[in-house]
Design brief:
The chain has 148 residues and is α+β, with helices and mostly antiparallel strands. The chain is 41% helix and 17% strand. It contains five helices and six strands; from the N terminus they run ααβααββββαβ. It has a three-stranded antiparallel β-sheet.
Length: 148
């Protein structure tokens, strides 16, 4: 389980102060599997922390992304969404996005052939473009089961 003590250490490494907004935003993201927007984060936290501002939420999210603690995803032309970045390598996932209702479904039950194909594609593109790949995000757009 993640705890504030672990996050505080990461903040000190980045010469950043540990603040209540940073702790509660990171805690909220670590407890949900949803991809939530800055405004949704703000709305969730405002009731318990009325002093938190939307600008603080945006700044904190930018810092957490730069630190590598959370992922920022932009799906289509909608608002950016954020998710907690697991440190476990086997928790990598891709996304199915419904173009009708906006539902986002995580996909992580890869079979060996899929993993090999993605790895081979990553290696080929990295070599072709002389690029060091650190991460990737694959999105599939279509209609979810309810919208078909």
């Amino acid at each position: 389980m993640h705890g504030p003590h672990k996050w505080r250490h990461r903040f000190r490494a980045h010469v950043s102060r540990w603040t209540v907004p940073r702790e509660v935003i990171l805690d909220l993201l670590s407890r949900t599997s949803k991809h939530i927007s800055a405004k949704e984060i703000y709305a969730s936290l405002y009731r318990m922390y009325p002093g938190i501002g939307l600008t603080t939420v945006y700044r904190t999210l930018d810092l957490l992304v730069r630190m590598g603690l959370i992922n920022k995803r932009t799906f289509g032309d909608g608002p950016s969404r954020y998710e907690f970045k697991s440190e476990k390598k086997n928790e990598h996932h891709h996304h199915f996005l419904c173009t009708k209702c906006g539902r986002i479904i995580d996909y992580s039950d890869f079979i060996d052939e899929e993993l090999e194909l993605v790895k081979k594609t990553e290696e080929t593109l990295a070599k072709k473009h002389n690029f060091k790949v650190l991460d990737h995000n694959i999105e599939f757009y279509g209609l979810c089961e309810k919208c078909q």
